[in-house]
Amino acid sequence: MSTVTAKQLEVERIVDKLFKAIAQHRLPPGTRLIEAHIVESLQANRNHVQVALQRLAMQKVVTIEANRGAMVAQPTAKEARDIFSARRAVERAIVEAITPAIMRKNRQRIASHMNSERKATNDTDRRAIVRELSEFHLLLGEISGNTVLSDILANLMVRSSLIVALYQRGDVPSCASDEHQQIITALENGDNEQAVAVMLEHLDELEDQLALEQGAPEEFNLKQALSD
What we know:
Arc Repressor Mutant, subunit A; Four Helix Bundle (Hemerythrin (Met), subunit A); 2 domains; 68% helix; WH_DNA-bd_sf; DNA binding; Tscrpt_reg_HTH_GntR; transcription
């Protein structure tokens, strides 16, 4: 059995910090990821930061260009459509795998999340809303028991957040808590067909909210984004 090294744990910490900052729209598409700033913000080793950025580049969350360095990816309109197509396939499989027994086993965890989600959507903290609504999809992936699908979805969710940051029309919510509750209710009742139907309609609506034209990256503060 392989042993996880201190270096691997540190790289994972940096990846996780960047992943979350991107997913929660604290680092918008096109943001330059200056190594020295990441090192300072996360009190990290420069070599570890470079490895973390390379890993994120392999996941299409970051792009690395010669003479320009690393930056948060800027998905094209075609990539946006492809990612939502992939999400339909992955999230359908996830929902189909969830049984009433799984729902009962995770009842407290699901209820806690839905409570946090409702609180967020009733407030005006955009970052909290994005975080909680995205967490719903990740939660379903985790409880499904299929770690491969869950890992794939985690990557697709971060890439979806980049798409929303670039293409979402105005302040239209990128997700709806009521639709999430409908999916939960159907799964609790063992009606996977209904849960799949609601999920696919939900994803169609999310894609319809996008104006698939190139957007301009927003202003950002790298150190502040990583300090949260």
